[in-house]
Amino acid sequence: MNITRLVRPFRYAVEAKTRWAALLAVPMLFAGCGSPIRIGDASSPSESKTASLSATPSATAAPTPTAAHGTYTLALGSTWAGPAALLQSGDVLVFDSQGQLQLYTPSNGRLENTGASPAPDISVAWSGLLRDGRVLFIGEAGPLPYREVAVVYDPATGRWNAAGSDPLAREFAAFARLRDGRVLIVGGHGGEPDAVLKSAQIYDPATGKFSATGSMSVGRSGPAATALPDGRVLVAGGAGETSSDDPYENVLASAEIYDPAKGEFVKAGSMATPRVDHEAVLLQDGRVLVVGGNRSRDTNLASAEIYDPATSKFTPTGSMSVERYEHAVVLLSSGKVLVAGGSNFDGEDFASSELYDPATGKFGPTGAMTTARAFPTAVRLTDGRVLIAGGGNSQGNVNSAEIYWP
């Protein structure tokens, strides 16, 4: 049985007095978690999760053939959901952090074990679908000192293959899939001694190798990375280097743009509000919505802003009804953005959801989940619905999944 470092957003790396502190030593069979960054394509982020072995499984119910717009229904089956990837078939590959791969099939609404061999001993930080239908996972592996590794899973054969490694491991980094299929890994904590990193790497699935690329102007731990339509990547916010033991001393408002053609970062405009543990999603018109997060050790954010690549500026937009971090953010087929779940520093976990409408610049209410979920996994299905799985709340980690009907 492997001891894994459980995923929590940036706050959990620095805040000892949380309701999750006891979970940091829970042994897991599958190292299906890692740095608190977005899983999958940066344009449709979701979060890596873990589960407590002592949590009580949630009951499940048969999916409804149709449901009212803006409502949630439970999926059949249960999952201690970790990273997830939408396959070419339209099914969703889900990591059960108990050591199993699961498949969610939208046509029957079921989560079922695939029977695939157990995953390698890797603490997964990012996953994405490759053009040939395989799924790439990047994370960390031990023993100490940890190293960055990549593995590939082939759904057609159920086999795992090593895909390269690099001696430098990063926690709380940001990842983005580039248009050519390579992956940008930027910022985070790492090195000896541990430091906030300016550096970035490129992972190339074609060669199975990590390579260094240009560095940012400042170190960032827990930033958000979003791939833009022109192939560049926006890296916004995060926590910078500090002169004290308080990592929230230097939460950043600044942003930078990575140009893969040049392998360089350039400064972009700054956000109106410094943020870490925030979410960012690419809108249909090419702008980026940045929403929620934390400004300091005791300040959560309900505010949001829009980044416009045409002007390289951030503009405040409407605010959510509640302050959230650890929330899921998904672009819907309609162009609206679903914000689901999350929590705040008062220990509240949310079942509520909100919809952001880029046309009006406002958030509005939508249906609530059946269960409060912080740090859930979220994947938009090919039919436009959204799978929300796993996560946790004050009762423990949640062993269920549900479907949002737009």
Question: Strands, helices and their partners?
Answer:
Elements: E1 2-3, E2 27-28, E3 71-74, E4 81-86, E5 92-96, E6 100-105, E7 110-113, E8 123-129, E9 135-141, E10 147-154, E11 159-166, E12 174-177, E13 183-186, E14 189-190, E15 195-196, E16 200-204, E17 209-213, E18 224-227, E19 233-236, E20 255-259, E21 264-267, E22 279-282, E23 288-291, E24 294-296, E25 299-300, E26 304-308, E27 313-317, E28 328-331, E29 337-340, E30 353-357, E31 362-366, E32 377-380, E33 386-389, E34 392-393, E35 396-397, E36 401-405
Short description:
This protein has 406 residues and is mainly β.
Describe the structure.
- By secondary structure, the protein is an all-beta fold.
- The chain has one domain (2-405): Kelch-type beta propeller (Neuraminidase, 6 Propeller), CATH 2.120.10.80.
- It has no helices and 36 strands.
- The protein has strands spanning 2-3, 27-28, 71-74, 81-86, 92-96, 100-105, 110-113, 123-129, 135-141, 147-154, 159-166, 174-177, 183-186, 189-190, 195-196, 200-204, 209-213, 224-227, 233-236, 255-259, 264-267, 279-282, 288-291, 294-296, 299-300, 304-308, 313-317, 328-331, 337-340, 353-357, 362-366, 377-380, 386-389, 392-393, 396-397, 401-405.
- The protein has a four-stranded antiparallel beta sheet, with no helix packed on it.
